[in-house]
Fold Chromosome 16 open reading frame 89.
Amino acid sequence: MSFPVFLLLIFLFKSDVSKSEADMRSIIISALEKATFFLANKYRDINLDAVFGFHVLQALENWASEHELLSQQARVERLVKKLSFLIEKATHSLGQSDPEYFKEFEPVLGPNFWMLPHSWNQTDSSLAYSVFDSSSCFTEEMSDKCFTYLLGTWKDNGKPCVVTKACRNIMTKFGCSGYPLSHQLFYFMFAAMKGCSDHLFLRTQYYKNIFCASMMKINLVIESIGFTFSSRDLFMENIMLCGMSGFSDFYKPSWLENILTWQKPEEGCFGKPSENSEHPSRVKDQEQLLRRVKRREKVFADGCSSHNTAVAVGVLGGFLYYY
């Protein structure tokens, strides 16, 4: 499972913010307001990924800079108030519709679970994999189980931070691509949030450096083939997770500009574009690199995607935090 959007959006900006930066923040806030409109219409039906993604936006209430434009502060305050009401309803609906899955990952819905980077790094392209594994590396079910061992939800009153031999092997396997690669990074992020002390996690930064260098390589491939729809979800997930891991080179202005164009203007969601707006892939040999694993996804008749929208919200929040 991939829990997108898990950035705690704490906006502490500099006093000398330029007008262009303020304008860009306003544009991003507008996109988040539209995404909240999607939540208002679909809160009974979205999946856990989306519930958590919007849950994170509640941290907008931590907008605490005296240097910000009052108009932006007011918009954020209204957004947070609306989100609080909707998320409570969405969480209740999810607990009823998928109680077992909800119970396994409920800890990540906690208000203090996620931490933001306090310093920034750049990826080192020399650390990226030269060759990616052509297989899927491991299944979503396998990664889900490893996550529950860390969270302590693998059984009632389970011990957290359990690292099994199987999980150690798959989560440190080199050469993985696509969602298995982002899940490997997620595993080390979960461990950090839980404060797990297994000796494996003494090398967390080592693995993060390799994983995000490889995820950057994948994103550059996605960019080179024109951001085809099938690659956008993974592209944004890589930005969200590596940005949250402190790699600032994922916050490219040109990438933000493209992501903003993918939002459906009326629905407020992110998802399948209209038939005539999608460009065919020009690099067929890269399809295996961008392969995604099976996941709990919810796609609506209007083309809106729960997972796609949740990841996009997390990415937009990450850009705001970085600015």
About this structure: Residues 70-97 form the longest helix (28 residues).
